[in-house]
Design a protein that fits this description.
- The complex is a heterotrimer of chains A (505), B (331) and C (342).
- With 505 residues, chain A is α/β, with parallel strands linked by helices.
- In chain A, 33% of the residues lie in helices and 26% in strands.
- Chain A has three domains: 242 residues, P-loop containing nucleotide triphosphate hydrolases (Rossmann fold), CATH 3.40.50.300; 153 residues, Rossmann fold; 79 residues, no CATH class.
- Chain B is mostly helical and 331 residues long.
- In chain B, the strands form two sheets. In chain B, strands 1-4 form a two-stranded antiparallel sheet. A two-stranded antiparallel ribbon of chain B has the order 2-3.
- Chain B contains 14 helices and four strands.
- Chain B has a single domain, classed as ABC transporter involved in vitamin B12 uptake, BtuC (Orthogonal Bundle), CATH 1.10.3470.
- A two-stranded antiparallel sheet of chain C has the order 1-4. In chain C, strands 2-3 form a two-stranded antiparallel sheet.
- In chain C, a hairpin with a 2-residue loop joins strand 2 and strand 3.
- Chain C is built from 15 helices and four strands.
- With 342 residues, chain C is an all-alpha fold.
- The chains are: A alpha/beta (505), B mainly alpha (331), C mainly alpha (342).
Chain lengths: 505, 331, 342
């Protein structure tokens, strides 16, 4: 029975309107590979960020090798032998492999005040040797492949643990295989298995096959809670999927009774649209008043697809037509003019001008219609703003309130109001209820149903599978850049999340 | 709040977006208060401060500074800056006097057109060649200064025969000096453009959140070009006003106005980050600067020390108005 | 890259100019200094032909070296700030102020002060102090460097003129005179001093931890901080070194002119920024070293010397310099890093 190297108890983390982690217990033992699975929003990222000190929990204890610790920041965590290899990579791009390996810890290589390149080189070769990488140490990291970068980060963490004499370091690998080829993946897992003798590894992946094959133990998270802790050799993939999404499906949370069948007219047509390296040629249609849900995990290509539809990115092939008319690719202004709206995932940085008023944000797209004699009329502006504030139930003292002072839910409603007021035909909604409290969520669902009634087609990507199923009339499932399945979601006869999950992972 | 599970690796995204409440009192009230306080201070220092003659001097200076500052304001609103106003003013002033001699009253519109063209070029360097505005305008400003010196290495006096034309600026209308009326007209023009036209409003959107503006289909290139054209207009008009007022052109007269125009805009409460502030702020800022400049002279502060004080005032104003949530890292 | 606002934008090069500029940039940078050396040879070649060989005379080469020394020292100070990703526009103000300090404290005609050789550490210290203030304004008060250093320049310039009352202070019997004006084996001493400064700074950049941190911050400030780099300390130090070098440049200038006046600082910023850009130091940061800055200064001086020899109108020279600056920046900045350019 191995000792526990890392123990988290009753960890809770709250954000306004949402509980990210709810009394989670999390233990990592020495010399094990722990697989961590869960949907987006289950709390995996938050938990890991707490592990490495990026954020602090609101409640709970953190014990490392038996002693309680407070981890101040990722650098501190690394010195204590806890480190994470992020999806995006944490290496400084213009520095060389060797420089990145030892960044901030070069003091041991000093030779009369100057860094001894020879000592550094020897140490670098040794460090890279543990992860089986042979590369020119002076190559800038920006010129290396993602596979090599991951290995460098792992090598660095291992080297730091040795430097600070931290026994059994804990390495967290966050979706490491999404950017790797099959060969690179096999190398990674064989190295991970080798490293087990001196470290513990937490493997986060949505590819359940990998998790079952490589891990010793598997932890499943859902809705901020830990729902299961099982030995890998006893695990079957269908069981894991069930536990990830749960059985219960709360009907009418998503105003199912307001769901209407789509109109006859086709609003959006995608013909042969593809983007090299991201998604294969796709064809589908969206009808008037139809809500389509795009479902898929990281790497499925759905985000890029939505960006292409909204004109934010250019697809490599194919055509996108709105009401039969072909749209110029890669031009948001064209898309907007044609009547395509886009609610971005990050409303603070992409959705609103925070330093401007509600009225100014709501009226952004319709200024031409608010003119009198060629000039914008303040009265018409106010009238339009008030109308949509009322319609969308935005809670604010006045239309001249600055958006930065609104709550997350009201900010989101302002973004929606902006598009609503401009007579769109198609709306792309990217995680519309993320970070929004329960009450505002319901109001946003109401707005979505209202939009459908007026004939607006919608493409939606939600935080949870349940939300996707609940809102949409038809679900398109993407995996690794391909459209793998299409599922109807009629009201009162909705599929359950467990039916769908196997197509996704 | 940022999404709890965004998977992002950065620390600052969390910090920068945690409940930042904007200062509820608009910057304009601070600017007005400062103006009043300064006037009181200087009057206490020297009672002649409020004399008709002195107020006239302040008014003349403020009028010209307002016009160039109002132009500069547009580039700052959009999140950039125009460091070429000095060179443009110098060049326009000598060009104006030379053209007066050659083509008489047509010098007025031609010079304005040239100024507009220069503004457009500044905008184009930013939007097409994608060079940051502060380097691009530093470069074009240098080129314009040397062009000015090429046209006329020394100050050039306006031809006496054309003095009548200069009355367009130097004359009076119903007792009010044309100089002030022109400044007022410029103010109205800029105010109306920013507040009541779509492209003016777009300057605010682009300055406030350029990414959102792009995603919402706003013509970023056109809006930015427009902002720089407006800046060129301000510099050109101010140069003409100044040349008429001084009965001559000077290839170095513009240098001072780079600092002063930026100071007027920033002190008035328009943030360097863009998206807030406006014409009224800038007029108040110009008045503050004119009052400071004049007041320090009247009270006896050393001429060269004034530059230091101005520098300090700018640093403090920027520190107070810069929107730090906008840039995760300050470079 | 997890950079907050700028990372997600698709990189669109809509005009052929910017696409080819990106290709040109990669070549410009990847080649270290070989691109710059080539440019230098071409420039010198053109002028040698244009002046029928006069350009390559020993006298002219000495002139070029001696003229390039001080801009090189300033550029070496300035470029490190640029590598960080910031900018230092305070050159003229710092130099003006330090020159005036020299005027007041070295043996001069207006007062009885004579600090002898102490003037060297004093000037360096004053310049360094100004630099540290720049660093503090940028890191602690979070004022963007281009405004804070610009403001500092104006503040210091004003102080300089105020303190000196706008007058020229003649220096007397300065002990450094022989050093500043002398030659060793035909090479101007100032050029040798500039070379030594370049060598020291380049060594520091290559072989010390500070050098690593400098480039890390320039490459990705957020990730560097996450890795444990002390960003604020490093930035303040970099601004400080720049100030020290400006101070030394001011000292040499004053001694060379044998007098101290505030306007000595004028027209130093533009050539320095041009030198840094031409040398291949990207405004976006993370790229370029002391060798780039020094070589850039040499190229700019060689260019201007040639223009003078060819009798080109002095005002047109400034226009040429302006154009060179704009082109050099266009070729070296990393547009992906800037996202939407302001």
């Amino acid at each position: 029975m191995s000792a526990a190297v890392l123990e988290l108890q009753r960890i809770t983390k709250r954000y306004p309107g949402v509980v990210a982690l709810d009394g989670v217990d999390f233990t990592v033992y020495e010399n094990e590979i722990l697989g961590l699975v869960g949907e987006n929003g289950a709390g995996k990222s938050t938990l890991m960020k707490i592990l490495i000190g990026l954020i602090q929990p609101d409640q709970g204890t953190y014990r490392l090798r038996g002693a309680p610790v407070v981890i101040k920041n990722p650098a501190h965590a690394a010195n204590l032998g806890v480190g994470m290899v992020f999806q995006e990579g944490c290496l400084v791009p213009n520095l060389s492999i060797m420089e990145n390996l030892f960044l901030c810890h070069e003091i041991g290589f000093r030779h009369f005040g100057f860094l001894s390149k020879r000592k550094m080189r020897d140490a670098a070769h040794a460090a890279l040797g543990t992860v089986k990488v042979a590369a020119d140490l002076d190559t800038p990291v920006s010129e290396t492949t993602p596979a090599v970068r991951q290995m460098i980060e792992i090598a660095r963490l291992l080297w730091l643990s040795k430097l600070y004499q931290q026994r059994n370091p804990v390495l967290i690998l966050d979706e490491p295989t999404t950017v790797l080829t099959d060969d690179e993946r096999n190398t990674l897992f064989s190295i991970a298995t080798e490293l087990k003798s001196q470290a513990s590894i937490i493997l986060i992946s949505h590819r359940l096959q990998e998790i079952v094959e490589t891990s010793d133990r598997i932890l499943i998270m859902k809705d901020g809670k830990r729902v299961a802790n099982i030995q890998a050799r006893h695990a079957g993939i269908p069981e894991i999927e069930q536990m990830m999404v749960g059985h219960a499906f709360a009907a009418d949370r998503f105003r199912e009774d307001e769901q209407i069948p789509p109109g006859d007219q086709v609003t959006l047509t995608l013909e042969n649209v593809s983007k090299r390296g991201v998604f294969e040629p796709l064809n589908f249609e969206v009808r008037q008043g139809e809500i389509i849900s795009l479902v898929g995990l990281v790497g499925s290509g759905k985000e890029a697809l939505c960006r292409c539809i909204a004109g934010l990115e250019k697809p490599d092939t194919g055509s996108i037509k709105l009401a039969g008319k072909r749209l110029t690719p890669g031009s948001p202004s064209e898309a907007v003019r044609a009547g395509i709206g886009h609610i971005p995932i990050d409303r603070r940085s992409d959705g609103l001008a925070l330093g401007m008023t509600i009225a100014e944000n709501v009226n952004l797209l319709v200024l031409d219609h608010l003119k009198v004699g060629g000039f914008i009329s303040p009265q018409r502006e106010k009238k339009n703003a008030l109308r949509w504030i009322q319609d969308c139930r935005i809670k604010a003292p006045s239309p001249s309130t600055m958006c930065v002072n609104l709550s997350g839910g009201n900010q989101q409603k302002t973004v929606i109001a902006k598009w609503l007021s401009s007579k769109i035909h198609l709306l792309v909604l990217d995680h519309p209820t993320r970070g929004v409290d329960v009450g505002a969520k319901d109001e946003i669902y109401r707005l979505i149903r209202q939009l459908a009634r007026t004939g607006v087609g919608m493409i939606i990507m939600c935080d949870t599978l349940e939300e996707d199923i609940g809102l949409c009339g038809r679900m398109l499932i993407m995996k690794d850049g391909q459209l793998v399945n299409e599922v109807n979601c009629p009201p009162y006869r909705k599929p359950s999340p467990s039916d769908i999950i196997s197509s996704i992972v | 709040m940022t999404a709890p599970d965004s998977g992002s690796a950065t620390i600052t995204q969390e910090k920068a977006t945690v409940g930042h409440k904007r200062l509820q009192i608009p910057a304009i009230y601070f600017a007005l208060t400062l103006l009043v306080v300064l006037v009181i201070l200087f009057t206490l220092g020297n009672q002649n401060f409020l004399s008709a003659y002195n107020l006239n001097t302040i008014g003349n200076y403020a009028a010209i500074l307002s016009v160039v500052a109002l132009g500069q304001m547009n580039t700052i609103l959009i999140g950039g800056i125009d460091l070429s106003v000095g060179g443009l003013m110098s060049f326009t002033s000598v060009l104006f006097v030379v053209l007066l001699q050659l083509i008489g009253v047509w010098a007025f519109p031609i010079c304005i057109l040239v100024a507009l063209a220069v503004g457009y070029v500044n905008g184009a360097i930013l939007t097409r060649i994608k060079i940051p505005s502060f380097i691009a305008t530093l470069g074009t400003g240098g080129i314009l200064t040397s062009l000015a010196l090429l046209v006329s290495p020394l100050p050039v006096v306006a031809p006496g025969s054309k003095y009548g034309l200069l009355d367009l600026v130097n004359g009076n209308l119903l007792g009010i000096p044309n100089l002030l009326l022109l400044a007022l007209a410029a103010f109205v023009l800029f105010y109306v453009t920013l507040r009541f036209t779509k492209i003016g409003r777009n300057i605010y959107y682009v300055g406030s959140n350029i990414k959102m503006s792009w995603m919402s289909g706003i013509d970023i290139v056109g809006t930015r070009n427009f902002a720089f054209v407006l800046s060129g207009f301000g510099a050109g008009l101010a140069a003409i006003m100044l040349s008429c007022n001084q009965f001559g052109g000077d290839p170095t007269l513009g240098n001072v106005y780079i600092l002063q125009s930026i100071a007027a805009v920033v002190v008035g409460g328009t943030a360097l980050t863009g998206g807030t502030g406006g014409a009224v702020n800038t007029i108040i800022g110009a008045l503050i600067l004119a009052v400071m400049e004049n007041g320090m002279n009247v009270v006896g502060v050393d001429a060269y020390f004034q530059q230091s004080i101005l520098g300090l005032v700018i640093i403090i104003s920027v520190a107070l108005t810069f929107d730090r949530t906008k840039t995760a890292m300050i470079k | 890259m997890p950079n907050t606002v700028t990372s997600m934008l698709p990189h669109r090069s809509t005009s052929w100019l910017s696409t080819s500029a990106t290709k040109g940039r990669k070549w410009f940078q990847r080649s270290g200094i070989s691109g710059q050396l080539l440019a230098l040879i071409i420039v010198m070649g053109i002028f040698t032909i244009g002046t029928r060989g006069k350009y390559l005379s020993l006298v002219n080469l000495q002139v070029i070296l001696s003229l390039a020394a001080i801009p090189a020292i300033i550029a070496i100070g300035l470029h490190q700030v640029v590598v960080l990703g910031a900018i230092d526009l305070s050159v003229e103000g710092v130099v003006a102020f330090c020159v005036v300090i020299v005027g007041f404290l070295a043996h001069n005609k207006f007062n009885a002060n004579d600090v002898g050789l102490w003037i060297i550490p004093i000037t360096a210290g004053v310049g360094g102090g100004a630099g540290v203030i720049n660093g503090l304004l940028n890191t602690k008060l979070k004022i963007p460097s281009f405004i804070s250093t610009l403001g500092m320049s104006w503040v210091l310039w004003g102080l300089a003129v105020f303190v000196s009352k706008g007058q020229t202070i003649p220096l007397l019997n300065n002990p450094l005179r022989a050093v500043v004006n002398g030659y060793v084996l035909g090479i101007p001493n100032l050029a040798i001093i500039a070379f030594l400064i370049f060598a020291i700074i380049q060594l520091v950049q290559d072989r010390t931890r500070f050098g690593r941190y400098l480039y890390a911050i320039g490459g990705d400030e957020v990730l560097s901080a996450q890795a444990g780099v002390k960003v604020h300390q490093t930035k303040i130090f970099v601004f400080g070194i720049a100030g020290v070098l400006y101070g030394l440049a001011a000292l040499f200038l004053a001694v060379k002119l044998d007098s101290a006046q505030a306007i000595t600082g004028n027209n130093l910023l533009f050539p320095a920024v041009t030198a840094v850009a031409v040398g291949g130091v990207a405004l976006t940061g993370g790229i370029g070293g002391a060798k780039n800055a020094a070589l850039g200064a040499l190229i700019v001086t060689a260019l201007n010397d040639g223009l003078i020899l060819l009798d080109v109108n002095p005002y047109a020279q400034q226009a040429v310099n302006g154009a060179v600056l704009v082109v050099a920046v266009a070729l070296t900045i990393d547009r992906k890093k800037l996202g939407f350019i302001k």
